[in-house]
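Let us practice reading a record.
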Amino acid sequence: MKHEILKARPDFAQQLGSTIEKAATKLTPKQLAEDVDKEAFKDTKLIANLTVAQTKKLGEEGSAEKKQAFKDSVNQARAQLNMFSATEQARIQSLWDEVDHLNPNWQV
């Protein structure tokens, strides 16, 4: 049950006794694109802990609504960079470069 919830809403990890970092690493790129609810992408901590492979698949196969929610979260995270670790800051900057203008898969 917990695993099924985290598959759709990894942003609920802390409420379910886990961490967002762990929940993010358990998702395959395909699961991220297909199974994760668009509302989960509003969690900036989640997006900061996704892998390149996961976000690539989301850009290629995610719905327009999921991609827009993800892009909005990346922009929000960029505005609050000081609340993230150095590693997460670098990942957020990389995501912003990808979703903002470098990758045509992110056009919605």
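A brief commentary: The chain has a mean pLDDT of 89.
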